[in-house]
Amino acid sequence: MKKLVLLAGLALAFAVLMPVSNAAAQGAEGAAAAADAGTIVATDGAEPVAASNRGSGGFLHVVFGSGPLGVLLWLALFGAGGVGVYFVVDCAITVREKRIMPATLIQNVTESMAEGDVLKALQNCENEPGPLANVLTAGFSHVEEGFDVIQEAISTAADLETEKIMQKLTWISVVANIAPMLGLLGTVQGMIGAFSSLGQGAPDIGVLAMNIAQALYTTAAGLTVAVPSVTVYYTFRNSANKIVLRMEAMTMELIKDLRNVEVVDN
Questions:
Q1: pTM
Q2: What letters, b where the CB count within 10 A reaches 16 and e where it falls short, cover 176-207?
Q3: What residues contact residue 248 under an 8 Å CB cut-off, 6+ apart?
Q4: Positive or negative: CA dihedral 65, 75, 24, 14
Q5: How many CB atoms are located within 10 Å of the residue 39 CB?
Q6: What are the phi and psi torsion angles at 66 (to 5°)?
């Protein structure tokens, strides 16, 4: 299942970033076409320099023409987009109240506690594993050790389950922070190439356009990944915090009768 989600994430990342890359290729091709229409005349009376069309060739030429670092940057951007989509889909599936606190589990445990049968409640948790079930299992496993021990075990288990949930969301934040940095690195690389081309005298329009396209569109690609990732991260984080608080309140409600419950052997 996770492999399918990852493949879907990579496909969606390509679908999102491809318009950006196509725009970069079109920009480079347009500059090269303009260069083919004439020549560049040097101001010092030297021979006119014919502009080359080395900026043409489509998106692959934009990628591979930017050098090894540029290729790595584009691969990293597409990879970051795919990873971001994967964790967004994964969190959308797992970070839900129905998934963390199943209604059937709450109902079964409530009925078992009403009967005073802790072993039955523990069995219900084992039959329907999840964050709430893990927290309740930690408490029910220490029922003979006193209510204070039960509360401590539940508190520790709740912290652990909360950390597991937040770790998934953290990866979305990591993608949101890395993507614009990769775009900025592409901007720096493109501008270095552009000014290096200008520093050599009469510039090659195709090469200059290629460097500028690399600078601008890697930044655009990074922001294309980062902006949705930041939005989704804070949305899921707020939702997860609400669910965690409800889980803790529900746990305390379900164990409040353990002060007087005796273990029933089936």
A1: 0.68
A2: bebbbebbebbbebbeebbeebeeeebbbbbb
A3: 158
A4: positive
A5: 13
A6: -90, 5
DSSP 144: G
Using alpha carbons, select from 173, 178, 12 the residue that is nearest to residue 91: 173
Number of Cβ within a 10 Å radius of residue 232: 21
Q: What is the mean pLDDT of residues 40-48?
A: 45
Query: Are 214 and 195 contacting, i.e. CB atoms less than 8 angstroms apart?
Result: no
- Picking from 129, 90, 128, the residue whose alpha carbon sits closest to that of residue 240 is 90
Give CA–CA dist 135/150, Å, rounded.
10
- The token pair at 188 is 């720096």
The span from the CA of 73 to the CA of 187, in Å, is 10
How far is residue 221's CA from residue 171's CA, in Å, rounded to a whole number? 19
What is the C-alpha to C-alpha distance for residues 262 and 266, in angstroms, rounded to an integer? Answer: 13
Q: Note the pLDDT tens digit of each residue in 137-170.
A: 888 888 777 778 888 888 888 899 889 888 889 9
Structure tokens given for 244: 């965690």
Both tokens assigned to 151? 């509360």
- Cα 31 to chain center, whole Å? 35
Q: Are 173 and 181 in contact (CB under 8 A)?
A: no
Boundaries of every domain in the chain = 2-40+49-221+232-259
Question: Residue 253 and residue 39: Cα distance in Å, rounded?
Answer: 81
- Of 179, 153, 156, 157, nearest in space to 231 by CA: 179
Taking alpha carbons only, the member of 185, 234, 233 closest to residue 77 is 185
Helix pair 67-94, 205-255: axis angle to 10 deg: 20
Type of residue found at 174: V
